[in-house]
Amino acid sequence: MTQIENAWGAGPGEGYEALAAPFRPIFAEIAAEAVRRDLERDLPHKAIRLLKEAGFGAVRLPVEAGGKGASLPQFFNLLIELSAADSNITQALRGHFGFAEDILNTKDAARRALWFGRIGRGEIAGNAWSEIGTGAALECFSTNVAEKDGRLVLNGAKYYTTGSFFADWIDVGASNAAGEDVSVAVRREAAGVEVVDDWDGFGQTLTASGTTTFRDVAVAPDDVVIDDDRFKYSAAFYQLVHLATLAGIGRAITADVAKAVAERRRTYTHASAARSSADPQVLQVVGRIRAAAYAAGAVTLQAAASLERAYSAHFVDDAEAEEKANAIAELEAAQAQTVVSDLILDASTLLFDALGASATKKPAGLDRHWRNARTLASHNPRIYKHRIIGDFAVNGTPPPYQWRIGASAG
What we know:
nucleotide-binding; oxidoreductase; four-stranded mixed β-sheet; 3 domains; flavin adenine dinucleotide binding; FMN; Butyryl-CoA Dehydrogenase, subunit A, domain 3
């Protein structure tokens, strides 16, 4: 069924249904095993392999480079559909899609050709940027790339290395000998790379967002890029991946609660109908959840349109216009974040109001929706976004494009 037939609204762009059609059977296969994987903590190697083989990792690349030529709104709508199947998969691929977006934006023709070839062949990249420990937030990375015995080598340790366990490459944030921030790409299976699945969060448990260490890992000079050259709307892009994931969780909640209500036979003496499926109060809860999921998707796609404008502005020789487009994209992503996270966190709790106590049994797996949504909503805290939005509204203050976490200077 199309999005319109499912009452989620039309997909972005005239070609969206044709773009999504080949992936939907894979999404359905992923969804069929989602609860079991969560209960058994079975990492989604097969699911990610199926997506790689179908070219999902190259969906933003031009068709002539082996991609699908998807616009950013189309891309984020695909992520909503994937997240409705299993939000862990989207999160595990978040680093890859950010890396691919950077390649799309690079004006270095040789680098673009190199990575278009790799990504177009189905190779994917993991993420390794967050430092371990209490390093100061504004300091250079402790992970570093330096010359040793006539070659470049990478040394250091990272946490929250989401997706690296499943990847062919790892995109690493590091410092070079000059103290500059750089992006370093290394093979996942290279000598000296160790990826450990020690993520112990209560949500998004299958993303393998654990520790990766690098010990004298050989680095090709062509795979080291000054961080200032990376795409400027990256913070908004990465945030929107979270929001698309949350919107997809909303759709998954909708499907699960609707199915459970339709099948439910037990009721209460003080209920409004003999069956939950005919009880107006229960139906009201289900409707409220579905409306929240619908709104979350619509808000996410509205913000995605601002990223498309920022992407387009990058290729016009007008620095001021590009700067303005990036600022607006960041603001729209922040405004969307505060609303979407509230909608889906609320829905993940409301679903239990439509069901009985049996819905809390572990085999049902319904708790995963709140755990996953709460974990996602804890990234890039919402409390700061309201202040940033308000500061822009009142004082015209532009938003910060990037942020780091670490110990304060004091």
